Write a sequence for this structure.
């Protein structure tokens, strides 16, 4: 019947090309697929036929369902032309690639350390670090690369604050961190930078054990975690919290500069910041794709997902679902974007989201108030976009302003 035919569409491959003419919109095909069927078969590079979720409700249901595993060794990357077959297992301390009960144990230990008090201390630090970098920008420009001058160093220093990296180690730390996100560094150089950073954290652990300071890493040394686990977790926090926040600041600024009326609203009313940040998270969905594997047969949306099937969720498509967010392709800072999935959902929902929010709520209004005439220094189509898998964003954002 027509109904059955509709329930078994031809497997597609994952659309990757961004919508023409807009650096913020997900691939146009994703909207078509979501309209046809929010959960549908998809072909993976190794020939496996798994699934693609594009609707908000079904994406949320998958993320909340423990019958879907996050274990890397069960997952295939959906990237056409990319590596095929299951991935290597998670390294020690990498929470995103493991399931309960191992995951629950780490998660509990860590969640207890991201306290209200710690977030308050970090808010004071981000205000200072933001102001320092805006001062430096003012001295250096006009015409600066906002990524290099602001969007990358602020979150990098905030991770140093979180982990308690001593001032004397920060220059080296920042250098490796910059390499981690550099467009010119190949995958190998980036992996080497991550290893170097994890080693830096590893070297800190014994010092924190011997002489605890007021930071998350010192807090964690009082738990049952081994030195190896602590170094792994520290390196992972860095990897999870740096590129993400840096690209939200970079791409978010680009989006605000491209919607001057929205930027003006934020400049006029810094009280709009909290809600503006949620809307930017939704609209940009920089962590655009998630992957899971079914541990058993699961019936969902009238379809049968078989045990072992890989399921890709398109967070960017889900966050533009008109059934959840009316007029979803419009950036509207007045909107209540609650319920967006930009930080994920369920057991693996972002552990650093309060820190990320604090950084963005301080940084965006401060930037736009300090430079009321801030604008792009190049045509928008010349801004180099990160179009790789993982995290969407900008490699550079040349900006200028009128000097008083
Ligand atoms: C997990 C996004 C900032 C630490 C996640 C996940 C997403 C995400 C989508 C879920 C991954 C999954 O389900 O597999 C973001 C975005 C950020 C951000 C968009 C910035 C705007 C941060 C920061 C930190 C952090 C600043 C810490 C310093 C983590 C950790 C996890 C995680 C530890 C793993 C949680 C788990 O698997 O239990 N993040 N993140 N993130 N994030 Fe974030």
């Amino acid at each position: 019947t027509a109904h059955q035919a509709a329930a078994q569409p031809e497997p597609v491959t994952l659309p990757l090309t961004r919508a023409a003419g807009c650096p913020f919109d997900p691939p146009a095909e994703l909207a078509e697929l979501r309209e046809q069927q929010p959960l549908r078969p998809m072909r993976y590079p190794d020939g496996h036929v798994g699934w693609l979720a594009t609707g908000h409700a079904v994406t949320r249901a998958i993320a909340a369902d423990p019958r879907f595993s996050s274990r890397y060794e069960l997952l295939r990357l959906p990237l056409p032309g990319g590596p095929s077959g299951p991935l290597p297992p998670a390294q020690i301390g990498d929470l995103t690639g493991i399931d309960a009960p191992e995951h629950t144990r780490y998660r509990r230990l860590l969640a207890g350390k991201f306290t209200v008090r710690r977030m308050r201390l970090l808010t004071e630090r981000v205000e200072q670090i933001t102001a320092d970098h805006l001062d430096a920008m003012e001295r250096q420009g006009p015409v600066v690369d906002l990524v290099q001058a602001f969007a990358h160093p602020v979150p990098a220093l905030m991770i140093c604050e979180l982990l308690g990296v001593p001032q004397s180690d920060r220059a080296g730390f920042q250098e490796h961190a910059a390499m981690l996100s550099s467009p010119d560094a190949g995958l190998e150089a980036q992996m080497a930078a991550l290893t170097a950073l994890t080693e830096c954290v590893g070297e800190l652990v014994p010092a924190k054990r011997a002489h605890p300071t007021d930071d998350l890493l010192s807090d964690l040394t009082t738990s049952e975690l081994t030195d190896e686990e602590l170094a792994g977790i520290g390196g992972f926090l860095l990897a999870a919290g740096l590129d993400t926040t840096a690209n939200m600041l970079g791409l978010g600024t680009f989006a605000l500069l491209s919607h001057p009326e929205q930027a003006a609203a934020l400049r006029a009313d810094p009280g709009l910041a909290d809600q503006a940040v949620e809307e930017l998270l939704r609209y940009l969905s920089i962590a655009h794709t998630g992957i899971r594997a079914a541990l058993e047969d699961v019936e969902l949306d009238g379809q049968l997902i078989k045990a072992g099937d890989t399921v890709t969720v398109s967070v960017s498509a889900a966050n533009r679902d008109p059934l959840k967010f009316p007029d979803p392709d419009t950036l509207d800072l007045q909107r209540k974007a609650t319920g967006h999935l930009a930080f994920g959902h369920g057991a693996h929902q972002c552990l650093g989201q309060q820190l990320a929010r604090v950084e963005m709520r301080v940084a965006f209004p401060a930037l736009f108030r300090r430079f009321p005439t801030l604008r792009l220094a190049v045509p928008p189509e010349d801004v180099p976009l990160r179009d790789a898998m993982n995290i969407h964003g900008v490699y550079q954002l040349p900006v200028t302003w009128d000097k008083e």
